[in-house]
Amino acid sequence: MVRLLTSKVNPARISRARCASSSRPDAESFDIHGDTFIVAASPVESARLVLNSELDFVKSNQSAIGHYLAEHIYCRGYLDVSKSPELNLGPINIFIPPLSAALKDRFQIEIRSIRRPADRSQILRLTGSAAMDPNWDNRVEIAPGRVDRHGTPMASTILKASSPDEERTKTMLDVLHEVASSLGGKWSSRPLLLPRGASYHEAGTLRIALSENESAADADSRLLGASNLFVGDGAAFPSIGVANPILTLTAMGYRLADRLVELARA
């Protein structure tokens, strides 16, 4: 497990990663040296690593590092459609994309069948996921006085829905009920908002953005002020898109790999 990144001669260049054994917390730390470093531990843990490293370029780039944390706001309900023969013909998996490109419609609905063997009832799981808008106040920061078993300061998060986020979520819930009404059936469990963090789709914190004062990384996913430190996970997202983010993450990973090859050849 990487605890810290350090620079030795050139303050803009990472020279080593200070590591600890995840299976032996009492073991001594050890260093890994390299020419190029990529943080890809999740938007929360990647930001934690960069903030804990106390590098010179981090201190001069406080406007965006750790900020703009976002995720998907989830709601979920279960609809019993056992008395609807047309919905009992087999597995169902339906995806309803955003209704338009407008910011207010940045949500989607998924309908998936769940058959209960005990009574052979047909249940549809209806899930809505709404994207949060980028917000500087939503952030990862170092939690004072809290350390992990290796003595490394832990992260805490501040993640609150804005007024547009709440309005978008309300619209999503209304659409979810409209979909349920058109399907017929009866709610066995009415839609409820899931706790914050339940989506596991965090984004931002080391983001790429058009404006430098809102960016932590450049268009190559390289941390501003650093020459050899790159972001390889959803922390680089300027905003969270619709669910699920895995295809975008994969595409950005390939893009970063291609760029690193180009830089190495140059």
From TrEMBL:
GO terms for molecular function: oxidoreductase activity, acting on CH-OH group of donors. Its cofactor is FAD. The keyword Flavoprotein applies. Belongs to the GMC oxidoreductase family. The lineage of its organism: Bacteria, Bacillati, Actinomycetota, Actinomycetes, Pseudonocardiales. It holds the Pfam family GMC_oxred_C. It comes from the Bacteria. The keyword Lipoprotein does not apply. Residues 198-253 form the Glucose-methanol-choline oxidoreductase C-terminal domain. This is Glucose-methanol-choline oxidoreductase C-terminal domain-containing protein. It comes from Amycolatopsis coloradensis. Keywords: FAD, Flavoprotein, Oxidoreductase. PANTHER family: PYRANOSE 2-OXIDASE. InterPro entries: FAD/NAD-bd_sf, GMC_OxRtase_C, P2Ox-like.
